[in-house]
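Standup notes
- DV: blocked on the single-chain target, sequence here:
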Amino acid sequence: METAVVPSAEGMLAELVESHDTVVRTARSVFALADPAADQVTMDLLTQRTQIHEKIAWMLRSLLE
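- DV (later): unblocked, structure below
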């Protein structure tokens, strides 16, 4: 998401949280496709990436509190 003006530091953090949440939602939707196909490698990769992005989003949210 691009903005016309430079956001505040809090605004930047909020955008980062939103972006990480988007990646997590996307990974979960792909996981729903990989599971029935029994694609273990893809499911493992998606699980790892989801965990990383959830952790980063959580850490960024803690900065906003």
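- Follow-up: The chain has a mean pLDDT of 93.
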